[in-house]
From TrEMBL, chain A:
InterPro entries: Metal_resp_DNA-bind_regulator (IPR052509), Tscrpt_reg_PadR_N (IPR005149), WH-like_DNA-bd_sf (IPR036388), WH_DNA-bd_sf (IPR036390). It comes from the Bacteria. Residues 16-91 form the Transcription regulator PadR N-terminal domain. The lineage of its organism: Bacteria, Pseudomonadati, Bacteroidota, Cytophagia, Cytophagales. This is PadR family transcriptional regulator. SUPFAM superfamilies: Winged helix' DNA-binding domain.
């Protein structure tokens, strides 16, 4: 069995980073987007902690950018997905699709292709 | 206007407490955006709460700052500090010796004085009713001058109880404490000090009963003994119920009703050996029963215990006239005003001048307290001076340590360790010194103080003091030296500037100012004692002996006198009502022609047999002595000069004085005899011829015979007619010398302290001069090569110190003058302060300074310059 290496929350965060793109993917915005997308509130700290863990695993990289005046000219850390990260979420998805395909009740009813 | 809409400051501050530094910026930024966003939709309070919520959620392992300090085992470092400190001491033995000796002497003095002061302050504290008990005193007015008397007439006790009782839970009448002869049934006899008191005495003064009952005094045939007295009289046998006779008076045969624990030495009633019942004294003493007006004699003591609601002031005000209302007209003229002297003031505040409390022993407490503080201050100054002076030498060490990698904190620790270690070693030495010196200190002060090993307060104070003084003394090297750059330190560029040497000079001046003040003070105390000792006594105390008398021997007085005179042991002898150093009775019942009716009189009276005057050797300046040739002398009087002056008699001889109504003729006037304090004017006194049994034999020993032989003969003559009362005697010159006891005690103590103070200051400049000489070694070498003489070099270094001492002298003179003239004002017969004392004190100090400093300056000046200049 293939180990996924990604938790559900981690995976969602990585996807959100992908959605937000280069300029917006910092902790606060990610937390906001998470809430918008899932309808579940989440604290910035929880998001930040997970981002930090993902960066340590090598799935994300980050860089500091100058912040706008709306944040008191504070710097912000922009996260982006590394090549490894991309491969991991892709594998994760493929693994799940593979699992779905083996599910007899649904077999053939989904036309999922990526 | 509300506050600007921003993230709550407290939340940010809290965040800063724990958040990783590198995250701070971005997180704050995020929070700010969060705030702005939420604030658009929600109230300010909710927004704030949201921010707090977010901050709390940053309490996660990844975000929390790691403790940057990594743990280092400090133990080896402290070990190294201690080792270095010890090595430093061993390398500079002189320096360490001076430091430790000076500081330990100062501490020892302070500890001793503190013990003394504590002992003084805790007088009577052992009584359970310490704060509620007082003694009734009276202020009487004699010709406008108010005197405070300690004794009262005995009916006053009942009067207070009956008519003023609301304030008092107890009123206790007692006799004074006197020596009485106690005899057991099996003929064991001892002289013991005791008093006769009303039953409540034992509860008011909280006697701690060891056996028997404290209530025994309600039975007048019972007596209470102190434990030591009971042991002395009965050994280990049970004393309760045993019979005793007081003063061999059959009427005073009593049964031991109880044994109480001996009172502590710091008590008004220390050495109170027994307490008998007042009723016993009253029934056994005829005059108490038969006296016409019992309100007349002031011969007893009254103690009161206040009720819970009463105050000393209130009760004093209410009883003020209790005596005045009862006394006869003549005594009412003296306007006796009663007041209560609280127990807490008995020991330290018992002097009254013109009816106003003027202190008492508290002055000595202050005097010694201040002296102790000063001596300690001087010792600390030494310690600080030497540490700062030497620290300059150690700047190289600091430089090297820093170069090798010492942190500043470690250097600071090291210097502090050194100075605190020195302080602790000194404390240990000081405790040792106190242990050695305490017995002799106790002899001088007549106390029994001990080191309180088990008292944590002492330990706390000692340890606390060591740390504080260690930190103060070590602060200059620790904080300043450790801050200089190592390159500068190694190069030796660092020279502590003028400020540190000015600081040292100020401290040395302070030290010497104290020393000079102490020298001047001690000299004046000695002068005052000497002055009073040189005051003409009015009679001759040499070879004058007093022997307490008993009735039986009185009957054989003439036979004893003849026998003793024949053996040549004595020159003459007489009987006397009191000791020549004492004045035991006085009278106010005097009248003479031309007496101002408003003049109130209080003359001392002295009774003696024929030959009394010749025996004591008084000097008759007018008229004649009592003589067997004049039978009328039984009603004759001899006055002293003070009495003649007081009465204003131009021609006293032949004047008639009515004494309690009896007309008496003045036959002679003598030069004043000092019977009371040698510092006070002599009381007007009249001497009468007494033929009845008196209290003392007064004998003049033949100067050709040794005192021991003479005493042996006197004793055998005494024993011939009396085998019961043990023979005892006192030399009047020793008894007279006791009058100087307090002052001599102060003189001895202040000499001790002054010597130590001078020793400490000398130690200080000894250390400083060694340091200066060492520092200027090269300079001296060069000067010598250039042709300076040893004398010039010696002068060069010594003059600095001499100037300091001179400055101290100038500061000390006014201080000492004011202090000592106010001290002398306590004595009406006192010496003037002469200028030579100041000159001598300063000159003495300068000489001592020069000698002290010379040791090192001479060594340095005499050294071969090649040796000092060879290096470099």
């Amino acid at each position: 069995m293939i180990e996924t290496k990604l938790g559900d929350f981690e995976e969602v965060l990585m996807l959100i980073i992908g959605i937000l793109g280069e300029d917006e993917s910092y902790a606060f915005r990610i937390a906001q987007e998470f809430k918008d997308q899932t309808g579940r509130p989440v604290s910035i700290g929880a998001v930040h902690s997970t981002l930090d863990r993902l960066a340590n695993k090598g799935f994300l990289k980050s860089e500091l950018r100058e912040g706008a005046s709306d944040r008191g000219a504070r710097k912000k850390r922009i996260y982006s997905i590394t090549a490894l990260g991309k491969r991991v979420i892709k594998e994760s998805m493929e693994f799940k699709v593979a699992l779905w395909k083996q599910y007899p009740a649904f077999s053939g009813k989904f036309n999922m292709s990526i | 206007m509300e506050q600007p809409d921003r993230i709550p400051k407290a939340a940010l501050a809290f965040l800063r407490l724990f958040l990783r530094k590198d995250l701070l910026d971005e997180v704050t930024g995020d929070l700010q955006e969060m705030y702005a966003l939420t604030r658009k939709k929600r109230s300010r309070l909710v927004t704030r709460l949201v921010i707090w919520y977010e901050v709390m959620h940053y309490l996660r392992p990844f975000a929390i700052r790691k403790a940057t300090m990594h743990y280092v085992n400090p133990y080896p470092m402290y070990k190294s500090y201690l080792k270095t400190a010890l090595r430093n001491m061993l390398r500079n033995k002189l320096h360490a010796f001076i430091n430790i000796t000076g500081l330990s002497v100062g501490m020892a003095v302070t500890i001793t004085i503190a013990l003394w002061i504590i002992d003084e302050m805790t007088y009577e504290k052992h009584f359970d009713n310490y704060s509620r008990v007082g003694r009734v005193l009276q202020n009487v007015t004699n010709n406008g001058e108010v005197q405070t008397w300690w004794s009262l007439p005995w009916p006053l006790a009942d009067e207070l109880r009956k008519n003023y009782g609301t304030d008092f839970s107890a009123v206790v009448l007692t006799s004074g404490v006197n020596t009485h002869l106690l005899a057991t049934a099996d003929e064991k006899r001892l002289n013991k000090r005791g008093l006769f008191a009303e039953p409540q005495f034992s509860s008011v003064f909280s006697l701690k009963m060891q056996a028997g009952s404290a209530d025994a005094l309600t039975d007048q045939a019972s007596v209470l003994l102190s434990l030591s007295t009971a042991k002395a009289l009965f050994g280990d046998a049970d004393p309760i119920g045993a019979m005793l006779t007081i003063d061999r008076d059959q009427k005073m045969t009593v049964k031991v009703g109880g044994v109480y624990e001996d009172m502590p030495s710091n008590s008004e009633f220390a050495n109170l050996d027994f307490v008998a019942a007042w009723d016993l004294l009253a029934s056994a003493t005829s005059w108490i029963r038969t006296i016409g007006d019992p309100w007349r004699p002031n011969a007893f003591d009254i103690y009161v215990q206040l009720n819970d609601h009463a105050t000393f002031e209130g009760a004093s005000a209410r009883i003020r006239d209790a005596k005045l209302k009862k006394v006869n007209e003549a005594l009412a003229k003296k306007k006796p005003a009663l007041f209560i002297h609280p127990m807490s003031q008995w020991h330290l505040y018992s002097e009254f001048d013109n009816g106003i409390q003027t202190g008492g022993r508290i002055q000595y407490v202050w005097l010694f307290g201040i002296t102790g503080a000063f001596v300690l201050l001087m010792a600390c100054i030494n310690f600080m001076n030497l540490s700062t002076a030497r620290s300059e030498k150690r700047s190289k060490e600091v430089g090297i340590r820093k170069a090798i990698g010492s942190f500043r904190g470690q250097l600071i620790n090291q210097f502090f360790t050194e100075s605190i270690l020195t302080a602790f070693l000194s404390l240990a030495m000081a405790v040792l010194l106190v242990m050695i010196l305490l017995p002799s200190f106790n002899t001088i002060t007549g106390k029994a103080v001990t080191l309180q090993w088990l008292n944590p307060l002492w330990w706390g104070a000692g340890i606390g003091f060591c740390i504080v003084i260690g930190i103060i003394a070590g602060s200059y090297p620790a904080l300043y030296l450790s801050s200089i750059q190592s390159v500068k330190a190694i190069k030796g560029v660092n020279k502590a500037g003028r400020s540190s040497s000015l600081f040292r000079k100020t401290l040395v001046t302070t030290q010497f100012t104290i020393s000079v003040v102490l020298i001047i003070g001690t000299t004046i105390v000695y002068q005052q004692i000497q002055y009073a000792k040189n005051r003409p006594i009015g009679y001759n105390t040499n070879g004058l002996v007093a022997v307490p008398m008993v009735n039986e021997v009185h009957k054989h007085f003439d036979a004893v006198k003849d026998a003793l005179e024949k053996t040549g042991a004595i020159v003459s002898m007489a009987e006397s009502a009191s000791l020549t150093t004492d004045q035991s009775s006085s009278t106010s019942q005097l009248d003479w022609n031309g007496k101002d009716p408003d003049l109130s009189v209080d003359f001392a009276t002295g009774g003696g047999s024929y030959d009394y005057g010749a025996t004591v050797g008084w000097e008759i300046i007018m008229g004649r002595d009592f003589s067997r040739d004049h039978p009328s002398d039984s009603t004759a009087l001899i006055l002293n000069e003070a009495a003649v002056n007081y009465m204003g008699l131009k021609n006293p001889i032949g004047e008639t004085i009515r004494w309690s109504g009896t007309p008496c003729t003045v036959i002679g006037v003598i030069k004043d005899i000092i019977t009371r304090s040698p510092y006070e004017p002599v009381t007007p006194t009249l001497y009468y011829l007494s033929t009845w049994s008196d209290s003392y034999w007064i004998l003049r020993i033949n100067p050709a015979v040794s005192a021991t032989d003479a005493l042996a003969k006197i004793e055998s003559a005494y024993k011939k007619y009396n085998s019961e009362v043990p023979f005892s005697y006192q030399f009047m010159d020793t008894t007279y010398a006791l009058k100087f006891g307090d002052e001599e005690r102060i003189a001895t103590l202040s000499t001790m302290f002054t010597t130590l103070a001078i020793f400490i200051s000398c130690l200080g400049i000894f250390g400083l001069s060694s340091f200066t000489a060492e520092q200027r070694m090269k300079e001296i070498g060069i000067r010598k090569v250039m042709g300076a003489t040893v004398f010039q070099l010696w002068q060069l270094i010594s003059v600095d110190f001499v100037v300091l001492v001179l400055v101290s002298g100038v500061i000390a003179i006014p201080l000492a003058y004011f202090a000592m003239s106010s001290w002398l004002e306590h004595y009406s017969y006192h010496v003037g302060i002469s200028w030579w004392i100041f000159t001598a004190a300063i000159a003495g100090t300068v000489i001592v300074t020069i000698i002290t400093v010379s040791w090192h300056t001479m060594l340095a000046a005499a050294m071969n310059p090649v040796k000092t200049l060879r290096a470099e």
